[in-house]
Amino acid sequence: MGWLQRIAMHRAAKTYARRLPAEMHRGWGAADFYTPGQVRAAVAHLGLNRRYIVIAYAAFLAEDEFATAASETPVSATYAEARRIFGRYCPRGSGHTYWHVPISNEAAASRYGVGAP
User: Which one Pfam family would you cite for this protein (predicted)?
Assistant: First the structure.
């Protein structure tokens, strides 16, 4: 990865880390890990640059799912590298600290336009 791409990735990570954790929690409640579809829906809903979705995959997917999902992304990064970059920009106290607030499947589908409402 060249220096220009590194700068762009860090810039994207800053936006992802500020906005995505709260959106994931609002959309699907607290979870240790989410599905690739949930991550894609939240990134699209927020209008984040999908080129750097590998950062979100590393932050919200289990490592084995990350390998599969990340293989389809335009920017490549290892699981550890992408998690480190994401963690660097998480606001203090919010990095992977989620509180469980249940949400129905219908509410999530309605919010993100996924599946049948």
Answer: DUF6559
